[in-house]
């Protein structure tokens, strides 16, 4: 059995694989499809964008599709970069440039004011047209330097509460116990039987 994830982000794909393989499902994603299907992420919330990705791809391929819209909310930046996390430093910029921009913006912010959270909204599209969403969050603080080589995105700057470690210093299976994505996936698993039956 397969589950299709409407993402091109290989960091996300690896985390979904860890979750679904344990449950006997094989993960397919946009990275496995040759043609370029473009989804414009112009929603106002993580949920809006996740729904748009799941629906657009789901209607094309006619099977259940899961989509993830996620990002980092930094309190000292009034919730930025938020839904713009992937393109914080600009449309063609990479994770490294996004992290450098975040460090610059927080240059004069002291440790106690560097609180932040990761947010993950998942949308699941069913071939009967129904869409459902769940959300998971993970609280932390933005560090002063990049630490760790695991994970992706802002993980090397995201310090876990009551720990000296960043998310990128955790092994994948450890991140997958505490992350925003893991929490959203557990919420999805709670609802799955009900939603799949309707
Ligand atoms: P898809 O739309 O194809 O799924 P994307 O990378 O564009 O890929 P988003 O629009 O949801 O996905 O942007 C999410 C960004 O938020 C991502 O590029 C990271 O910079 C950041 N992010 C999300 N989850 C993260 C995590 O677990 N660890 C670190 N950064 C994360």
Automatic annotation (TrEMBL):
Its cofactor is Mg(2+). The keyword Plastid does not apply. Binds 1 Mg(2+) ion per subunit. Mg(2+) binds at residue 69. It is an enzyme of class 3 (hydrolase). Keywords: Hydrolase, Magnesium, Metal-binding, Nucleotide metabolism, Nucleotide-binding. GO terms for biological process: nucleotide metabolic process; purine nucleoside triphosphate catabolic process. It comes from the Bacteria. The active site is at 69 (proton acceptor). GO terms for cellular component: cytosol. Substrate binds at residues 7-12, 70, 152-155, 175, 180-181. Pyrophosphatase that catalyzes the hydrolysis of nucleoside triphosphates to their monophosphate derivatives, with a high preference for the non-canonical purine nucleotides XTP (xanthosine triphosphate), dITP (deoxyinosine triphosphate) and ITP. Seems to function as a house-cleaning enzyme that removes non-canonical purine nucleotides from the nucleotide pool, thus preventing their incorporation into DNA/RNA and avoiding chromosomal lesions. PANTHER family: INOSINE TRIPHOSPHATE PYROPHOSPHATASE, INOSINE TRIPHOSPHATE PYROPHOSPHATASE/HAM1 PROTEIN. Belongs to the HAM1 NTPase family. Homodimer. This is dITP/XTP pyrophosphatase. It comes from Salipaludibacillus neizhouensis.
């Amino acid at each position: 059995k397969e589950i299709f994830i409407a993402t091109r982000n290989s960091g996300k794909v690896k985390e979904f694989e860890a979750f679904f393989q344990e449950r006997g499902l094989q993960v397919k994603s946009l990275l496995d499809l040759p043609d370029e299907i473009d989804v414009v992420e112009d929603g106002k919330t993580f949920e809006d964008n996740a729904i748009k990705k799941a629906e657009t791809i789901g209607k094309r391929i006619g099977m259940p599709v899961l989509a993830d819209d996620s990002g980092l909310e930094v309190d000292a930046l009034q919730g930025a970069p938020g839904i713009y996390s992937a393109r914080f430093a600009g449309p063609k910029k990479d994770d490294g440039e996004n992290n450098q921009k975040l460090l610059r913006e927080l240059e004069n912010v002291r440790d106690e004011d560097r609180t932040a959270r990761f947010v993950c909204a998942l949308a699941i599209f069913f071939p009967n047209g129904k869409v459902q969403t769940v959300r998971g969050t993970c609280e932390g603080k933005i560090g002063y330097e990049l630490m760790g080589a695991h994970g992706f995105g802002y993980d090397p700057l995201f310090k876990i509460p009551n720990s000296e470690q960043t998310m990128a210093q955790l092994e994948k299976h450890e991140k997958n116990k505490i992350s925003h994505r893991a929490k959203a996936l557990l919420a999805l698993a709670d609802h799955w039987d009900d939603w799949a039956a309707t």
